[in-house]
Design a protein that fits this description.
Rossmann fold, alpha/beta, 12 helices, elongated, about 350 residues, 6-stranded mixed sheet
Length: about 350
């Protein structure tokens, strides 16, 4: 009996050592589990962010970095994004890289993450809080200013313009919108902003309807427009406005500057229906978001603010090699999409 009991104890101890060894090996292979949470998952911009995160993950394989990519489908689903953050807190990930859907609504979930020992890096869009390690994003105010400068340049500093806003609570686009309006007000007194209080909303469909409603009262009897220029602050509003202009037979008849890139927006630039696109570097943003988090987890000092830059693509410079990389980000390579 004693002999049998001894064998059981030895087996139990061996099992503990085996389990401990497996756990340690598992941790060495999976040392840093980084949750990357975008605002949405459908637009090319977010796929490019994802590609950058995957690029960083592959570079950091020797450190056992695993990127977990989960976000809401639509960019107005605050509750869904909050639940994703809460779920990752419960799962106890090493860190969270977050593009907040709302600069206020995500403050408390971020605070909860930090209180549970999970650091947060903010990307793309700001948060009205200091509970984060670093903010990795375009300087969106400057990006919007560049859009205003370019539109003013192609209008020779005079005329009437409109802006279709994106969505209330989206810090990144609100900064762009403000930068656009401020540069026109401060530097171009002969440009009149006819409308700047309409919102497109989170989807291309809602932005298309808003674009049609915005353009309708501006039509002239001969099929033209009473305005000279248009600015839109993100991919979905830019594409929706392009569709509305095309469907109304107005594309190319008004100077038009958008923000971000997609296949159809690039086509609009080629055909002269779009006269400028302010471009970010979303692949670099996702890449630096993950790299910055891993540096912090390893005890390295990181900058509180990292600007990933912006440029303006035009029909004249769109074929420059560096511009082409931003206009047509190679996200499919990293996401293994055909």
């Amino acid at each position: 009996m004693k002999k049998a009991l001894g064998v059981v104890v030895l087996v139990a101890i061996a099992a503990v050592f085996i389990a401990t060894g497996c756990e340690r090996r598992g941790k060495s292979r999976d040392k840093y589990r980084i949750a990357v949470i975008p605002k949405g998952t459908t637009h090319i911009f977010w796929k490019s962010i994802h590609a950058g995160a995957v690029k960083a993950e592959q570079e950091l394989q020797d450190l056992g970095v695993e990127v977990i990519w989960i976000g809401p489908l639509k960019e107005d689903d605050r509750e869904s994004q909050i639940k994703v953050v809460e779920n990752f807190i419960t799962r106890g990930v090493s860190g969270i890289v977050l593009a907040p859907l709302d600069d206020m609504a995500l403050c408390m979930p971020v605070r909860d993450a930090v209180n549970n020992g999970i650091p947060v890096v903010i990307i793309d869009s700001g948060l009205k809080s200091e509970d984060y390690v670093s903010f990795v994003a375009t300087d969106n105010y400057i990006g919007g200013s560049k859009g205003g400068e370019h539109l003013a340049k192609i209008l020779d500093g005079k005329g009437k313009v409109i802006m279709l806003r994106y969505q209330e609570g989206s810090a990144s686009t609100m900064k762009r919108e403000q930068g656009f309006l401020d540069v026109l007000k401060e530097k171009y007194p002969e440009i009149e902003v006819v409308s700047a209080n309409q919102y497109g909303g989170a989807t291309t469909e809602s932005a298309y309807l808003a674009s049609q409603n915005l353009l309708a009262p501006l039509r002239t009897a001969d099929g033209g427009l009473t305005i000279d220029g248009i600015f839109c602050p993100n991919e979905s509003t830019a594409f929706a406005m392009l569709l509305a202009l095309q469907d109304s037979g107005l594309a190319g008849k008004v100077k038009y500057v958008g923000f971000d890139s997609s296949e159809r927006l690039v086509k609009g630039l080629e055909t002269g229906e779009i006269h400028g696109l302010v471009l970010q570097d979303p692949i670099n943003m996702g890449y630096l978001g993950v790299k910055t988090m891993v540096k912090h987890l390893q005890g390295e000092k990181v900058d509180k603010r990292i600007d990933t830059g912006s440029v303006v693509a035009t029909p004249e410079n769109m074929n420059d090699p560096e511009m082409k990389k931003l206009l047509e980000p190679d996200y499919k390579k990293w996401l293994k999409e055909e």
